[in-house]
Predict the 3D structure of the following.
Amino acid sequence: MNQIENQKLPPLPKPIVFFDGACPMCSREIAHYRKRRGADNIVWLDISKPGNDLDRYGISRDEAMSRFHVLDRERSWHTGAWGFVELWSQLPAYRWLAWVIKRAGLLPVLDAAYSRFARWRIRNRCTSSQACRS
């Protein structure tokens, strides 16, 4: 490993939320979050648009489409329910919800439910539109 690879990358200025802007349900939900106080402290990256530079973050389009992803300031990935809790922890109106879910130990159960939903969403999206083929 060379010296550059051995160096820790600096923190990101803002966490990044990766979302499917071609999915009507996903777009509505993200639009809701983007209207909340604190949303300007988050980078919102629409993975359905060309030129979204996913390689820069080390994630493929298929991987990004398969689950909800959030990259925190320390460059740690949070996916599925963990991603939503990370997003909520960034928004003052939702911090209490993130705290309750973590404190109650609900993340594994919620993530299992989310995983089922994510598989259904991508299957449905790919049979009902051309968006997943672009």
Notes: The chain has one domain: 3-133.
